[in-house]
Amino acid sequence: MSERRLRPSAVTGLSACAALALMAPLAGASSASAAEAPAELYEGHVQVDRGQADDPETLQGQVFDDVNENSKLDGDETGIPGVAVTNGVDVVQTDGEGTYELPVRENMTVSITQPSGWQVPVDSDNFAQFSYNHLPEGSPGDFKYGGIEPTGETPKAVNFPMIESEATASAKQDCAIASDTQAYDKTEMGYARDGAVGDLADRNDYKGCGVLLLGDNVGDDLSLNDELRDIYSEMNGPVRAAPGNHDQDYDSPDDAHALDTFRDQFGPGHFSYDVGKTHFVVLDSIEYSGNESTKKYKEKIGEEQLEWLENDLKNVPKNAHVVIATHAPIVDHQQVIVDDATDLYDIIGDYPNAVTVGGHTHTQENLIAGEQREEWAAEGIDELPNTQIVAGAVSGDWYSGGLNADGLPYAFTRDGSEPGVLTLEFDGADRSERYTVRNESDDHQLLLGVNSPEWREWAQEAQDWQDADKAGTEPEAISERVVTRDDLKQGETWLTSSFLAGTSDARVEMSFDGKANVLAEHTQPGKGEALAKGWEYTDPYTASQNLRTSGSVGQTSSHLWRAEIPSDLDLGTHSAEVTGTDRYGRQYTETIRFTVVEDEAAAAAASEKKLTKDGFDTQQEKKVDEDDRQGLDSDEARKASN
């Protein structure tokens, strides 16, 4: 009888030194207590029997309990019933013996849905192994990055190993989502490794759910996939990857083969898996034109994936938590992004706990069900039926801007956020989420600044200088924490707070010089209004840095609050305390000190002192080109943004 091998899950994927350090306290433990440690992650692979198929039009195999963890279906190992298996369109469930049969499609990736209480194997880089590519003739043409080699005819069987897992059985799950790592070279891959990816390596709260890479994992150069795998190999849980528009084979003749290299190196473009009481669905939201010279695409799910989604959800209880993860978000606060958004919403309409999560825009947004926007209504969505989270970006604003004290680009995003990762938290019937800024604690949620008429005038001059490719003299920089007495008197000088955890039902209060709290207004409340865009709706803290370096400013944010600064403040330095309360009752407090001066000459002198003290380093000034700056590269998105 096969014996289950036990290994401490906490050391999986760590370096040898780190593993030894963690194992040292276990040296004195009894063998009995050590044996009680659950087997969680294990290295293995899908088993393919290359013998002749009984029927080449039917793929068959078994999902089995890999008790001895050797990735082989041994004679005394049993099958696992009720596991969903798919060829990318059809979905079947294994019978009482764990066996399945699926129609063969000429170009397909066959995968299983990992059930709660089970864990699929991972490879040496900790990427989950749960799929098999079938492409008899291989990728059409000579793909630059390899594509898929010919797989030959239908194999005799494809068997999927799993092991029992206490970690995935728990109803309490933390699920990390890392979007848009999008490194264009090894230097930027190093920025990711030392930033948000390093933060994940230091955490152990997501070991059951793992890490989901939400697309644009690299920046067009698929030879960097090896480096990407390397930096994520230190994760303390399984890694899965969704595809983005920058992960495609641009030399593919059509969309059907645009993800061949991705499928070969990472897995299916669309798939699902279960952890705890949550069903995760990953969809490919990019439809490639097949035109290598333009690299054009649409943000679209497509009929085939929508058909698969309907089939996949037939096995999911209506009251379950469902996460629909796509690279391009279905909507953001500016527009509807995915062409067939209403079709998707129709399919998930019977799942009240479904939430959609996207990346792509390099913004960080939490739009809750029930919100309304004029731009959505114009596209047939009168009210947002499901919460939409936009997961920020590991790369922030494409690794642009000056370098901070850690030697990493500030990379402040166009909407007033910072590089980081999203974590979805589940506990039974409850779901919450948090956004963790790179190299910061979870409490780092408020970015504060002063938005004054003088600052807005400087911002426009700086933007004009950026738009002219920095020709001529750069406008003299000013600090966003200096304001003239005249600006205060004329009004429309606001203390702003970019509240990263903020939703339309969050609360932000501001107190000036210890006086009574003032309730700040949300600049994008989602009550059916049109987009509010302009310098008066901009976070001056992050925008000031970007206007001095990369020039990337969006003049709009879904998570910006503001309150007018009292007009009767005396000359000198003042303080304001800001408290943000998110929809889960979590409170975050930050304090800002700002200076009131007599006139513009005094403002210039005070600004020079503050900027010198701030020490913003502009030695890294990566220019973000217009296509990347938009984040959305389709023709429709460009038109909407303009």
What's the layout of helices and strands?
Blueprint lengths: L15 H8 L7 H5 L11 E6 L5 E8 L18 E3 L4 E3 L5 E5 L4 E5 L5 E2 L11 E4 L20 E10 L1 H4 L2 E7 L7 H9 L1 H6 L9 E4 L10 H8 L6 E4 L17 H6 L5 E5 L2 E6 L2 E3 L8 E3 L3 H11 L7 E6 L14 H7 L6 E5 L5 E4 L6 H4 L9 E5 L28 E8 L2 E8 L8 E6 L1 H15 L14 E3 H6 L3 E6 L7 E6 L5 E2 L1 E2 L17 H9 L11 E5 L7 E10 L5 E11 L2 H15 L11 H5 L4 H7 L1
Parallel strand pairs: 2-9, 10-11, 11-12, 14-17, 17-18, 18-20, 24-31
Antiparallel strand pairs: 1-9, 2-5, 3-4, 3-6, 6-8, 7-9, 10-21, 13-14, 15-16, 19-20, 21-22, 23-25, 25-29, 26-27, 26-30, 28-29, 30-31
Radius of gyration: 26 Å
* Tally of strands: 31
- Rough outline: elongated
Uncertain residue segments: 4-39, 629-642
Determine the number of helices (DSSP H or I, runs of at least 4 residues). 16
Ends: how far apart? 67 Å
Quote the beta fraction: 25-35%
Widest sheet, order of strands: 13-14-17-18-20-19
Helix-and-strand structural type: alpha+beta
Strand count, sense and closure of the main sheet?
6 strands, mixed
Multimeric organization: single chain
Q: Mean pLDDT, nearest integer?
A: 90
Q: Percentage of helical residues?
A: 10-25%
Domain Calcineurin-like phosphoesterase: 211-363
Signal peptide: 1-34
Biased composition (Basic and acidic residues): 607-642
Region (Disordered): 604-642
